[in-house]
Amino acid sequence: MKRLCLIFLCAVLLSAALKAQTLFEAINLSDQPIEGTARVMAMSGAFGALGGDPSAIQINPAGLGIYRSSEISFTLADTYTKTRTNWGVSQKNKGENVFDFSRISYVQSFLSGREKGVIASNFAISYNRSKSALMRLGFTGKEGAVSLSTMMAEMGNGISELDMIGSAEKSPFDNEQVAWLPLMAYQDKLIDAKTGSSYQALNPTTAVAPTYNSLVNYAIDDIDISYATNINHLFYIGADFSLKLYQCSELSEYEEEDIFLGNQIETSGVGWNLKLGILARPFSFWRVGFAYHTPTFYHVSKTTNPNLNDTIFVEGSDAYRFISPSRYIFSTAFLFGKKAALDVEYEMIDYQNMRYKSLYATLNDGEENSFSKENSYIGAKANVAHSVKVGAEYRPFEFLSFRLGGAYVSPALKSDAEKIYPYNTIYTNMDYLLDKGSFCVSGGVGFRVKLWSFDLAYQFRRQMMDFVAFRGAEKAQLSADYHKVLLTCAYRF
Questions:
Q1: Residue-wise pLDDT tens digits, 154-208
Q2: pTM of this prediction?
Q3: What are the tens digits of pLDDT across the range 474-489?
Q4: Which residues lie across from 344 on neighbouring strands?
Q5: What is each CA distance from 335 to 58, 226, 453, in whole angstroms?
Q6: Tens digit of each residue's pLDDT (9 = 90 or more) over 17-43
Q7: Which of 149, 170, 230, 345 could form a disulfide with 201 if both were Cys (CB 3.0 to 4.6 A apart)?
Q8: Which residues contact 253 (CB under 8 A, 6 or more apart)?
Q9: Half-sphere CA count of 19, side-chain side, radius 13 A
Q10: In 3D, which of 198, 222, 226 has the Cα closest to residue 64?
């Protein structure tokens, strides 16, 4: 059995791996579903103008200024994810369950003792799991579908056959001008040269009921340090610094009659951002707020281990910088004494401003434009996304609260967006999920016992997507349903 096992050296990474990322990796680093404590989740994240909750700080840090006492809290979350797919003539359902210790926070309130000027200066430190999912997908296509070998041949066009062959002194996989997928297909005799740099699939009609299976596990953990002040009970001003830790593991298998393509990709990243916010209370029953979240500045590392037909195994890695889009959040809340509250929020995210950058831009000015094509495609195919959230809380008794909420998030991508890798990419995972928007509904109940509070929430979220195995393949309709149950315990002192 032929086995090729290669590890790229730094010299290769500098020139080749910089051209390896797509619009869909950018979205995965940038989008952020509604997460929070049980109280905030019960109201579908509509809490930015209410404040006084650890998760509200991550929406609008000015909400930290609402606190009049110190608090420690923790949240447990259980998420069941079920996907429904329909590709060709077959439909499959896949479910996965994840239990998380999703957040812990400490708030320290310093009251000035005055009723004018600076009333309080509050600090907070927290750990938050701002994004997580374990998603399993399974598809079976119809007979006569387009073969992956056709795309392999198309990706090879323009590559000299001599570069596909290599030499005794140098493996063709060391050539930074050659994409790995057509190279692997050529080595395994799935495609062949028509001319010196033009290729064709040897068996283009062999795709009979292709199948696809994958398991994706990802999470973003935040460590936040926050400050806010209360001025005359009229203005609340806050800031938050967030350190983000990103982890993603992807396993996928695509299979036809003569093709088996396996991919294992591990991604990790470290990033940071700032959040700035202000709340105003012009009347005792009305609050308005605005928050600005700066882009998140990431340093990302990836490794890939593709496998073709269990005969060719390759290993590679790369690293790059990534800048996520800014977020703008407008919120307003109405308070009806101590009995009820209503919060309405609007959020705008311009995904067109996502950007990749080279790690080496400061060393070589020419590297600054290494991702110019990728960034241009992001600007053309990403959307300005909008989300609307509404949440309500009703307190019939001092010790008991009921909550409801709902939210809608518009698609992050245009409907004709495709996964387009650069000509020399080391990645062979051609599949992608095209976002078509999401919505959620939620509810919950809260109890207060002296200085303790216990909140329970349930959220249902549906994410609509199209699955595409590779460019030119038939689209599969897909929906991912997230059922999340949360429990938050807090102690105020």
A1: 999 988 888 888 777 788 888 888 899 999 999 999 999 887 789 998 876 656 6
A2: 0.89
A3: 888 888 999 999 999 9
A4: 332, 390
A5: 21, 25, 20
A6: 445 689 999 999 998 899 999 999 999
A7: 149
A8: 211, 212, 213, 214, 260, 261, 262, 263
A9: 19
A10: 226
Instruction: Identify the CA nearest to 50 among candidates 454, 338, 256, 420.
Output: 338
Instruction: Give the residue from 377, 385, 320, 314 showing the smallest Cα distance to 349.
Output: 385
pLDDT value of position 93: 60
Q: Write down the residue that tokens 């404590």 correspond to.
A: 37
Look at the block and give the residue holding tokens 């088996």. 260
Q: What DSSP string describes 191-259?
A: EEESSSS-EEESSTT---S-EEEEEEEEEEEEEEEEEEEEETTTEEEEEEEEEEEEEEEEEEEEE-SS-
Whether the Cβ atoms of residue 251 and residue 307 lie closer than 8 Å to each other: no
Question: In 10 A of CB 271, how many CB atoms?
Answer: 22
Structure tokens at 260: 């088996």
What is the torsional sign of CA 25, 29, 32, 33?
positive
For 278, other C-beta atoms within 10 Å of its C-beta total 18
pLDDT at 19: 52
Q: Which tokens go with 312? A: 């060719």
End-to-end Cα separation, the chain, in angstroms? 68
The CA distance from 281 to 285, in Å, is: 8
Q: What pLDDT is attached to residue 143?
A: 67
